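Bumping with the actual sequence this time:
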Amino acid sequence: MDRAPATAPVESPSGTSPAPADPEPPPLRPRHPLTAWAAGLLLVVPALLVGCRVLDEDGPTPVPQLLSLLPWFAVPAALGVLLAVAARRRALVFTAVVVLTATVWASLPHQPQLVTSYGLPLAQVRVLASNVEFGQGTAALTEAIRRERPQLVFVSECDRACGRALSAAFASELPHRASVDADGSVGSVLLSAYPLRDEGVIPAAMGMPGATAVIAGVPVRLQLAHPLPPVPGQVDSWRRELGRIEDAARDRTGPLLLAGDFNASQDHAAFRSVLEAGHLQDAARLADASRTPTWPMEGSLPPFVQIDHVLVSEDFTVRGIRFLDVAGSDHRAVLTDLDLRGGR
């Protein structure tokens, strides 16, 4: 057979051989649907909580419980951003960044309004608010009162034995009291170095006594706060009792000190409503300590939320605040130094 003639290589017009073709680019990595789903799941709860924060709503269970952890949800939101980037989904990345940014924004200290106190200081007042957990922290609180020498003491969950012990121990230093004398968590006591009048109680499942003290010639309303906690099954009661505290704050006609275990943080709309209704400020916020946790101080979890507060009207300035461990109690106590100021 005749062989086909060999084909001579074709030369380029310049006489040189053609350059080899560029290699094809590698195929794009496939998107990862499981990674995208994981990112989306991590963003669900932070987005829900931020939405409630923006709408100024506490919502039904489990939203009020989860709102106590709002700042901590920046962690899953950040993980959601990383997974969204890994999944190569632009829309998901954008959504994750928005959710993370909104979560960080919602976690900033709440400042309902700028309150400026005028006038010269009339008196320095030291306030101590403590939940002693069914009276179990009475001995430690007694030591703290002796050491810190407050003029006003708000004690939640102070049972009958607790009330008797504190009254006997400070009969000279804090001789005046308003109380709800009861057992367990219902009992509460307000001790004062100043004479008290116009005693009253906000209706609630746990004791919330109040009274008016005359400090440096100025009538100051004192109110202990201790609404029910927002556990499943009693969120409506928790919201209703905080609403009664809000009404008391709104109806004030002079200086107001509102202190105790609120079972609510700045991330709860019901608590922010109390601040706004009474034109109040959280002393911790004014002292740049509004994220200092006060609960829980017992158990395996570290404290993660501030639910114990000292709220003040614009008649007070805050000189300092400290949070004290109280052995036997699952709450930290709040010790606040205030100046009561006169008129403009």
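The tokens above came from a reply further down the thread. The CA atoms of residues 10 and 273 lie 86 Å apart.
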